[in-house]
Design brief:
Helices cover about 35% and strands about 20% of the residues. The strands form 6 sheets. Strands 11-7-5-2-12-1-13-17-21-22 form a 10-stranded mixed β-sheet, sandwiched between helices. The chain is globular and about 65 Å long. It contains 14 helices and 22 strands. The chain is of the alpha/beta class. The structure holds guanosine-5'-diphosphate (GDP). The site of guanosine-5'-diphosphate has 25 residues, from helix 1 and strand 3.
């Protein structure tokens, strides 16, 4: 039995959490996992109309179904967030017995969050608009081979030595490169990490004590997940959930306004440790419109009342930061790029309900630069995306017909979502996907 990959086909926040939750409940699915990103990505699940929404940042949405849920080594893990999420789930009466977190996930440390904050400040008007979660600096330490992995939290002596070395590098970086003034103006960040700093100084002992304590609390969840995923694949279908969206990929997306891990199919393979031969279906998730968080070109952005209406109707505010998302019309160009680069077999279309009552609905089918048609982002060149003029189709008929037109402009739509609840979903599964799930 193989794996189904679920990938955001836009700039993230497409509603992957709900789609994974719907898939996770199907009979053949034996496990789900997240394999890229960190706690900068959020997903929200609403299991039934009478139950409250559950927002999670690290733990896969499948946890509410009781099926095995895995956080693979490709995820950058803030152990504080992870522990708080586990506690939150327990508070809601949801078991975490079936949760496994990779021993080899890299740990997001308080100094990563501070570095993220300082770097964004240094960039000024060029800032990316990160979530201050420390993702970029943690990914950089991984690449520089000075990162700390989850298993290291289980060995105080070793961790102490490792922190001496890393903090020895970070301290002068903060003071003399970023010229940090010892003040964290962002209140949320100050509350979260303020206790790990004294003036300019990183308090190593506070970090060490808390990391060791968290390591002990999380010990029972820490596993060799690569082996586990491969074991589950032999028993049934495994859902591989990506984070963010394809256009935020640092290699394939709209660089530099991207994230620091690869949310595309390659990232899922590397972050889970399975062979590409195991991927039987790639499901792309896209919204009936487009959103973007932070900076970067956005050809179909609506800076008017319609944009405000979509933002309000779709509750387009970051799960992690509460920041309003930039909203605009559906754009087939980024979705088609995601389809090509990830081998997307079928799509889930979400948030169709949000466009209800808006007329006309527009969607972009190609771009123009200086009157010349451009039929793909490749032909535009990512550096020129800010200069394009979107060419729209105007739509005045039913949302069902809108779906048909989107399908014609992109790919087959397997799943249609018209509300946050599990029951607000319509399936038109391709034979391939149906055979995998049932
Ligand atoms: P992710 O970042 O792609 O995992 O996105 P989330 O799972 O956080 O989804 C974003 C938000 O949209 C959540 O609050 C969901 O409950 C909500 N949502 C998902 N699908 C739909 C839908 O079809 N309609 C509406 N109105 N909300 C939806």
């Amino acid at each position: 039995m193989p794996a189904i990959a679920v990938i955001g086909a836009q700039w993230g926040d497409e509603g992957k959490g709900k789609i994974v939750d719907s898939l996770a409940t199907q009979p053949n699915v034996v496990a789900c996992g997240r394999f890229t990103g960190g706690d900068n990505a959020g997903h929200t699940i609403k299991p039934s109309p009478n139950e409250p929404s559950i927002a999670l940042n690290i733990i896969p949405s499948s946890i509410v179904t009781g099926k095995p849920s895995i956080v693979g080594h490709g995820v950058l893990v803030n152990p504080i967030t992870l522990y708080n999420e586990i506690e939150k789930l327990h508070g809601l009466g949801i078991s975490t017995e079936n949760l496994s977190v990779s021993l080899n996930s890299h740990v997001i440390m308080p100094y990563h969050r501070l570095e993220d904050y300082c770097l964004e400040k240094c960039k000024g008007s060029e800032s990316v608009g990160t979530t201050n979660r420390g993702i970029g600096p943690c990914a950089a330490d991984k690449a520089n081979r000075i990162g700390i992995q989850m298993w290291e939290l289980l060995n105080r002596e070793l961790l102490s030595e490792r922190l001496d070395f890393v903090i020895g590098l970070k301290q002068p970086l903060l003071e003399h490169v970023y010229h940090w003034d010892g003040i964290i103006t962002d209140e949320k960040l100050r509350t979260a990490i303020g206790g790990y700093f004294e003036g300019h100084k990183i308090k190593k002992d506070a970090i060490l004590d808390d990391c060791v304590a968290l390591g002990n609390k999380l010990k029972k969840y820490l596993k060799e997940t690569r082996e586990l995923v491969n074991k589950y694949i032999k028993a049934g279908v495994v859902i591989l959930e990506s984070a963010q969206g394809a256009l935020l990929d640092p290699d394939l997306g709209t660089w530099p306004y991207v994230t620091s891990t690869n949310p595309t199919i390659g990232g899922l393979l590397i972050g889970s440790g399975i062979s590409h031969k195991e991927i039987a279906y790639v499901l792309g998730v896209m919204k009936a419109y487009t959103t973007r968080v932070g900076g970067g070109p956005f050809p179909t952005e609506l800076k008017d009342e319609t944009g405000d209406r979509i933002r309000k109707g779709g509750n387009e505010y970051g799960t992690t930061t509460g920041r309003p998302r930039r909203c605009g019309w559906f754009d087939a160009m980024p979705v088609n790029l995601a389809i090509d680069e990830n081998g997307i077999d079928g799509l889930a279309l979400t948030k169709v309900d949000v466009l209800e009552g808006i007329e006309p609905i527009m969607f972009c089918v190609r771009y123009e630069i200086d009157g010349k048609p451009k039929n793909s982002i490749h032909s535009v060149g990512q550096n020129c995306l800010g200069m394009v003029k979107p060419v729209y189709i105007e739509h005045r008929r039913s949302l069902q017909e809108y779906k048909g037109e989107l399908e014609a402009a992109t790919a087959h739509i397997d799943i249609l979502s018209f509300g946050p609840g599990r029951e607000e979903t319509r399936y038109n599964l391709s034979d391939e996907l149906r055979n995998l799930l049932y």
